[in-house]
Amino acid sequence: MSEQATNQNQEVELDVTNEEQQQAPDVELEQADPVVEEQSDELAKALEDVALYKEAALRAQAEAQNVRRRAEADVEKAHKFALEKFAKSVITVADNLERALASSDNQEDPMREGVELTLKDLIETLSRFDVVAVNPEGEPFNPELHQAMTMVPNPNLEPNTVMDVVQKGYTLNGRLLRPAMVVVSSAA
């Protein structure tokens, strides 16, 4: 054979070899595709799991923080209003001392002076613990702080104005212990 024919045969063989080599990686890629797909599916599932666990951890952290805040608020309220039952009992003593003073006619009586001093000391002690008297005479009626005993027509006052206080009310740290029992004016 001539040299030319030999060169052509070698070129054809090289072309066939190159084609085979090019086809061989395709076969390997086709075989690798299921493995890659399986791994990418596993990765996607793992990423979903990570997102779920991250969300669950954030929710648990938020819930723990909420529980801690509620517990702190409950403790604060317990401290703030621990005296409520005691204060309700003590304010009746203040009422009785005020009644005793109102029933005494003699201003020079030493007993009256002792009751006045006792009442003054009791009111000061109550105020130290944020127990404050509500004496709304002349103020507009407030249903959150006052309890209307009766309504009386009075042309000299605006309607719904407190005319008289039958019994003082009290608050503890701004919270109502006992409403003031009042007589309210009505339109004439």
UniProtKB/TrEMBL annotation:
SUPFAM superfamilies noted in UniProt: Coiled-coil domain of nucleotide exchange factor GrpE, Head domain of nucleotide exchange factor GrpE
**Gene3D superfamilies from the xrefs?**
3.90.20.20, Head domain of nucleotide exchange factor GrpE (2.30.22.10)
- According to the UniProt entry, which residue ranges have a biased composition of type Acidic residues? 27-38
Q: Which GO terms describe its biological process?
A: protein folding
The question of whether Chaperone is a record keyword is answered with: yes
Instruction: Please give the residue ranges the record annotates as the region Disordered.
Output: 1-38
Q: Which UniProt keywords apply?
A: Chaperone, Cytoplasm, Stress response
A GO MF annotation of the entry reads:
protein homodimerization activity
**InterPro entries according to UniProt:** GrpE, GrpE_CC, GrpE_head
Q: Which CDD domains match?
A: GrpE
**Functional description taken from the UniProt entry:** Participates actively in the response to hyperosmotic and heat shock by preventing the aggregation of stress-denatured proteins, in association with DnaK and GrpE. It is the nucleotide exchange factor for DnaK and may function as a thermosensor. Unfolded proteins bind initially to DnaJ; upon interaction with the DnaJ-bound protein, DnaK hydrolyzes its bound ATP, resulting in the formation of a stable complex. GrpE releases ADP from DnaK; ATP binding to DnaK triggers the release of the substrate protein, thus completing the reaction cycle.
Q: Which family does it belong to?
A: Belongs to the GrpE family.
Give the quaternary structure.
Answer: Homodimer.
Q: What is this protein called?
A: Protein GrpE
